[in-house]
Amino acid sequence: MPPNTPKPNTREAILDAAETVVARDGASRLTIDAVVVESGYSKGGVLYHYPNKTALLAAMVDRMVDGIAVEIDGARDQAMEQDRPTLPAIITAMVQHRKPNTNVSSALLAASAEQPELLDSARNYIETIVADAVKPAPDPILGLIAFLAMDGLHFSDLLGLHYVDDAQREAVQSRLIQMMTEMYA
Which of 42, 67, 151, 178 sits in a 20 to 30 Å window from 124, CA-based? Predict the structure, then answer.
């Protein structure tokens, strides 16, 4: 490794390996041993950071939540700094965020069916964001409908339902943003 090259973060590298295993083989094939093979770290090294599969899955969920939270929080903060309503900004950020690897998301969703507590961090974050954005809205129910519509589009992708083509999806997303913006006009 060249002298000025930053050392890779071991925890992140292990999570990358775990995501690769889940995307390629499915959540049921995620084991500490599979992550050891994929990551190239020793079993002791992996277990030092993630003592069991549940800890590994929880870290994967947290990382996924953190990824979208950066975008949503950034959009919310920017809207607040510019004295604009946060709800349209958050919905726009949700529209713009589509994680390309839905295999990992759907596998984590499947794993959480056996251990619902894995989604606690996601649930807590979403509850806070939705409540903070919807409460001050002129029509809180319409704001909630927008969040539910975004969830519907997301879970449709995760479950592979694909009953909405790309053009329809774009039209729905554009209309949601328009409705949220017009609500404040």
Answer: 178
Rounded to whole angstroms, the Cα distance separating 173 from 131 reads: 21
What is the mean predicted confidence (pLDDT) over 163-177? 92
Q: What is the pTM of this model?
A: 0.79
Axis-axis angle for helices 102-114, 10-25 (nearest 10): 90
CA distances from residue 118 to 9, 53, 91, 121, 157 in whole angstroms, order as listed: 23, 11, 25, 7, 21
Checking if the pLDDT of 101 tops 60, the result is no
Secondary structure class of 83 (helix, strand, coil): coil
